[in-house]
Design a protein that fits this description.
TIM Barrel; Non-ribosomal Peptide Synthetase Peptidyl Carrier Protein, Chain A; 8-stranded parallel beta barrel; two-stranded antiparallel sheet; 14 helices; 44% helix; globular
Length: 335
């Protein structure tokens, strides 16, 4: 069994990656429903938390049905990170996660996220102080290095373990790569071969099918897999991977009715959590993924991403279900 501290995650957990503007409570509800073993919030600015900024504080919302859940924070200053850790602890997640992987310029330029990969001693010291300041298990998500000349992740894994983190998730790219090219899990596999490393190591990057999940599990020996972009509009991927790992057989892709129902549920929860206007607006980024592959769906999709009328949005989805009722996932075409 894989554990983070005392949290039992099963034999080979599948984790939902923290994704800004994606892994909010409405989306996490769907992923939990479809097999995610542990989920993380969107990453939260520590400066926003300690200033009591509404958007940052709202991201602390977690619900019993989604446990175990980790709250992820990012920042660069030790005092701010420690104060934010206290605020996070009050929200009662199972885990506090530190983001050392976000490659976005506005985060990196402040030496937060993946920016701290340019200063490993500072990363280690910052992590140590956070571990000391909270009773929550502390985990870290990071990348292989800043660029191809600074691939220090093996050393980083040992040093972060030594200061007390309980698990490490590694995205198989450098900061310089952003999300381009293919994720390289080779160094992740080497960490798993290191007899000094005893905390769970989760691999992340490019896992977009049950077959690839099985291949990477066996090839690199990771303790679990963290799934990000492949889950957007596709929360079924968690159960699909689990079923394939257990049986060697592929589950059928969701039918159109399941896709429509998931999109409706997502919209409904989005409105409940964010309010009508923001819930409708922030749902727009998801429709393309829910209805990908439907021939000629652009007309309907344009209505979904422009209308502010909630009843109209549900009506459009009903139209999609009726028009494509004979569609099957096997008949996917590009749009």
């Amino acid at each position: 069994m894989i554990k983070i501290g005392n949290i039992d995650l099963g034999e080979f957990p599948l984790l939902l990656a923290p994704m800004e503007d994606v892994s909010d409570p409405p989306f996490r509800a769907l992923c939990k429903q479809h097999g995610a073993d542990m989920m993380y919030t969107e990453f939260i600015s520590v400066e926003g938390l300690i200033r009591d900024a509404r958007k940052s504080v709202q991201k602390l919302d977690i619900y019993d049905y989604e446990r175990p859940v980790g709250i992820q924070i990012f920042g660069a200053e030790i005092d701010s990170m420690k104060r934010a850790a206290e605020i996070v602890e009050e929200a009662k997640p199972e885990v506090l996660d530190i983001n050392y992987g976000c490659p976005v310029k506005k985060v990196v330029c402040k030496m937060a996220g993946a920016g701290i990969l340019q200063d490993i001693p500072r990363m280690v010291k910052l992590t140590e102080e956070i571990v000391k300041s909270t009773s929550l298990p502390v985990t870290v998500k990071t990348r292989l290095g800043w660029d191809s000349n600074t691939l220090f992740i093996e050393e980083v894994a040992e040093r972060l373990q030594d200061v007390g983190i309980k698990a490490l998730s590694i995205h198989g790219r450098t900061r310089k790569q952003m999300y381009k090219g293919e994720a390289d899990w080779t160094l992740i596999g080497k960490i798993k071969e290191n007899p000094r490393v005893h905390i769970p190591i989760f691999g992340n990057g490019d896992i977009n099918s049950p077959e690839k999940a099985k291949l990477y599990k066996e090839r690199y020996g990771v303790d679990g897999i963290m799934i990000g972009r492949a889950s957007i509009g596709n929360p079924w991927i968690f159960n699909q991977i689990k079923h394939y790992l257990q049986t060697g057989e592929k589950l059928a892709d969701p039918c159109l009715s399941e896709r429509v129902e998931a999109a409706k549920q997502h919209l409904r929860h989005s409105i409940e959590w964010k309010g009508e206007k923001l819930g409708v607006l922030e749902m727009r980024r998801h429709y393309t993924n829910y209805f990908r592959g439907l021939p000629g769906v652009k007309t309907y999709r344009s209505q979904l991403v422009t209308s502010l009328d909630i009843d109209h949005l549900y009506a459009v989805m009903d139209e999609i279900e009726e028009k494509y009722k004979d569609w099957t996932p096997e008949s996917v075409t590009s749009v």
